[in-house]
Design a protein that fits this description.
The protein is α+β, with helices and mostly antiparallel strands and 125 residues long. Helix content is 28%, strand content 30%. The strands form two sheets. Strands 3-7-6-5-4 form a five-stranded antiparallel β-sheet, covered by helices on one side. Strands 1-2 form a two-stranded antiparallel ribbon.
């Protein structure tokens, strides 16, 4: 809602920011899950397995699941999922079976981002 010159108008956030000359603020949520995957499983194998699982979960929707050049998984270009090798705790060497899965989404995609995070958190349960 934008108020000015004695009038009030309802407009999109993007249009209101342009009209007022301010930069639009975007809120993103990011959460990381430590996943214990099969011993010796590579990061790319884990990423492919997660992408396949997400494609299956979203098969009846219009969401597009794509592998990015950087190796990340993108869901309709709004939810980003990154798989990295987990680090060992303390002085212990890194455990090859632990993978860190980072899920990041914008506030406008909270339902999708939260659903995908829950899906990843429940792998193997």
């Amino acid at each position: 809602m934008v108020k000015g010159d004695g009038s009030m108008s309802l407009t999109s956030a993007k249009d209101a920011c342009e009209r007022l000359g301010v930069k639009e603020h975007k809120v993103r949520f990011t959460s990381t899950v430590a996943l214990s995957d099969a011993a010796g499983s590579s990061v790319s194998a884990t990423r492919d397995r997660i992408a396949l699982m997400i494609r299956g979960a979203l098969s009846d929707t219009d969401y597009k699941v794509a592998a990015q050049e950087e190796g990340d998984i993108s869901v309709s270009q709004t939810v980003m999922i990154k798989v990295e090798q987990g680090e060992g705790e303390g002085d212990a060497a890194a455990d090859d079976s632990i993978k860190d899965i980072m899920v990041s989404w914008g506030m406008q995609d909270d339902a999708l981002g939260t659903s995908l995070l829950n899906l990843i958190e429940n792998i193997g349960r």
